[in-house]
Amino acid sequence: xxxxxxxxxxxxxxxxxxxxxxxxxxxxxxxxxxxxxxxxxxxxxxxxxxxxxxxxxxxxxxxxxxxxxxxxxxxxxxxxxxxxxxxxxxxxxxxxxxxxxxxxxxxxxxxxxxxxxxxxxxxxxxxxxxxxxxxxxxxxxxxxxxxxxxxxxxxxxxxxxxxxxxxxxxxxxxxxxxxxxxxxxxxxxxxxxxxxxxxxxxxxxxxxxxxxxxxxxxxxxxxxxxxxxxxxxxxxxxxxxxxxxxxxxxxxxxxxxxxx
Length: 260
Prior knowledge:
The protein is of the alpha/beta class. The chain has one domain (4-244): Nucleoside phosphorylase domain (Rossmann fold). It has five helices and eleven strands. The protein has helices at residues 67-76, 134-147, 168-174, 185-194, 218-243; strands at 4-8, 19-25, 38-43, 46-51, 79-90, 100-102, 105-109, 151-152, 156-160, 180-182, 198-207. Strands 1, 2, 3, 4, 5, 6, 7, 8, 9, 10 and 11 form an eleven-stranded mixed beta sheet that branches. Strand 3 and strand 4 form a beta hairpin.
């Protein structure tokens, strides 16, 4: 089986003229169907497996994304590392719309999600002090610098339940603890770690949430993403070849865990 890089996100994150589709895989997993068919092929001459996180018709809201099935499917297709482009709101003035944040920490503020593959009867406590692959994150930072992109090489992401946006009171509270806010990072990143997979979050800032006197709505998010997706696409083109062979310890976190 080929060793592939997994990409979870919207189809706009890459240049469709550069993606050579080899197979659409309709998969079943012990956790049900993934968000959609897994698109297997080559992107910038790198073997990849792509899943649309919210489905091809955006039918899965953040709290209903089949995270377990998505991660299971990617692993079954030989994925060892995942790159996850996403949209976030900014909680800090200096994290401006249109900029990219390479997330290095998260705070979980979700409420109803299934968080683990380890539901018993054997107990396993996962170490996740540093949740993201430092090798992949550093590779994206270096290529971003070479491309002249405005990239924050660190940022704490607070993950909320959704699908609603925050109240002003919540947004002002979150500003004390995090840099950006979104709805999809958890449990996706920790499920990847439970499977011993590398994971990198490329967060595109689309707005200033509601702590600042600018209304936030879904149309604004889509507009800002559309205007800046070429940055993520350029980053993927330059960085994917650099992360095929990684020297990291991400897989060690799951050593001794029950089989997933």
